[in-house]
Amino acid sequence: MQQNIHIIFFKYFIFSFLALICLTYALLLQDTVQIIIFILPLYIPIILMASTAIRHSNMYFIALSVPYLGAWYISFMFLTYINVPITILLYLVSLIPSITVTILHLFSRMSHTILGRVALSTLSKISLAELSPIFILFSFLSFTNVEIDFLRKTEIYDIPLYVILLLIYCSTSLIPINNTYRYRLVCKKENTNNIEKKINVIFKTLLQKFLNTKDNVELLRYYFLDTISNFEEGSYELAFLSAYKIIREQTVIDPRGYIDDKREGEPSSFSEIRTILIHSRRKDVEIRPKIIRETKTKLPQYTLEVIERALTFLKKLSEQTTF
What Rg value do the Cα atoms of the chain yield, rounded? Predict the structure, then answer.
């Protein structure tokens, strides 16, 4: 796993660094700065809104440009208005955003909290990500030498302001990007670009097979879509519990006749994970604060596993000809 993280970091960093250094070099050679100044703040909110509206796994790669370009924009606006040699400027304005965004993304894309306390799902629900373009505008107002009374030319002692703006912008803009990353993970489980289309085909078949229990079929659909929505937002506990209902509770049929809840490693079953999460059946499963913390740390992976198991059950149910 550690090696995979290193490989992923290398790929993200190299690609973003080369792209940003080419963009910076092009701007320094040609007088296109004014075009970028006005186009980029429009591009970023449009892509942020599109990332939530367009349901496609490849939207992740398009949305990923937002934090990199925004961080580059803030860096470019700051560094070009202080006395930095052009060679150093070329590398710094590309290197700083590449490293900052890559590290933050790798450590936050499957996390469910910030600083171990604030739930990412809470931040998603209050749409804090929609505020990120404000920091782009603020950097423009702070670091340019436009002839406005309350603005002044950027100086070297503005570095703390630059760092704060950069970190806040990256943290907020990464919220929807992390959501699209988690959506892509679910889609990859079924080798599809849109999990909703895939699941709609399955439930269309189920509605035809279970004409007398349509409400139960719709309940299954609700559980699954609720699972996907919560997983995408980083509410792993809610996502896990909804998916668990699909593989253990009877709706149109008893799922235990089609699939079990055993898994490799510890905990040995999804039932045990659920018990730890809701702190029930304490006589059957050892529950201690350390075990709860460890379980919640690994919950993103457990949730992906139970989603895959739920998909397996739904496909078996739709493919079976007799009941």
Answer: 24
